[in-house]
Task: structure prediction
Amino acid sequence: MIKNVGIIGSGTMGSGIAQVAAAAGCLVTLFDVDQQALDSAKQSLEKITNRLVEKGRISSQEKDALQNNIRYVNSLKELAHSDLTIEAIVENIEVKKKVFQELEGYVSDTCIIASNTSSLSIASIASVLKNPSRCIGIHFFNPAPLMKLVEVIPAIQTSKQVLATSQTTIENWKKVVAVAKDTPGFIVNRVARPFYGEALRIYEEGIADFATIDHAVKSVGGFKMGPFQLMDFIGNDVNYTVTQTVFEAFYNDPRYKPSFTQKRFAEAGYLGRKSGKGFYDYSQGAILPVPENNPVLLNSILERILVMLINEAADALFLNIASAKDIDAAMTKGVNYPKGLLAWADEKSIDWCVKQIDTLYNHYHEDRYRCSALLRTMSLKNETFF
Ligand SMILES: NC(=O)c1ccc[n+]([C@@H]2O[C@H](COP(=O)([O-])OP(=O)(O)OC[C@H]3O[C@@H](n4cnc5c(N)ncnc54)[C@H](O)[C@@H]3O)[C@@H](O)[C@H]2O)c1
Result:
């Protein structure tokens, strides 16, 4: 039973994870090297929990209990009594390795040492520990208190016991767990790449503008946000870097190739909402672009993006990155897709998916449009995912 939880890094993710663990009744010790970061984490938690009381989501006793469950510390040694530690510091493998080595010197032999990394190899982080079998990836999504999904990533060194305890603990924190193989992007950041990449490609080819592509994805596909709205929301700098990292980690597989359009937007400082301008203009009084309303065009845009997403999800299953159930849960609970991609493939028919991707491949002759072998086999055998 995990009771004492140590969190390393009190930034966006660390403070959110601390809130989740404290709300579930754990005693949390939140550590940061930067006193200012600790102070602002404390202030922001007070603000958030006060608002939850105002909205009637929690009682003022629950708020007090939640706040009292978190201790803010500026020394790593204070995490000595932890049953589980989750690291959420800067995304730099050397810095993380140093912190993990130091931490192992303080905690008990049974303490689980986890990382919230979005892109680094868990096997590599674990390798610096004397006991690497206690290391695991526990990947929350932003904002951690609101997003239901947590990817749990055992490294090749991780023990079965550590995986089982991590999974049960996160489920007790009222989250949905998807277990993923220790590969670049895990599930969500891998499977979601075509949502951005194919939308950018459609724009680059001059097939449609940002507003029309977003409109197609929302009105025909039922997505809450279009790809360009979402890239503006995430930040073009951040989203471009994730794509580039995944692309390089997959030895430059053209399926994940980053886009010059997004690179230029990032370079120009058109980062999105946070800079006031991205693919859209967020200044006051800005005139919103009007999308084209041609149903045939809208449908073809949605189908092209959707089939590329399905292909990616199918390939993740083919390569045993996660189970079909977890891949679909990851996309619906982690990035709010309207449907699981594999369930969507069943609905459209596997045969339809193969034909759509083959049509793209036959037209472009680019490896980017190669159909997953799993889809092809399933189509021949008339199989479905569920
Ligand atoms: N922001 C996201 O959307 C998101 C989502 C999922 C995962 N992640 C991952 O979570 C981790 C943290 O990201 P973030 O967005 O919360 O970053 P952040 O910049 O908001 O916070 C990082 C915190 O770590 C602290 N820190 C840096 N080095 C430290 C050290 N050596 N010891 C202790 N504290 C240290 C900093 O002072 C800062 O407060 C990264 O690995 C990132 O990839 C981020």
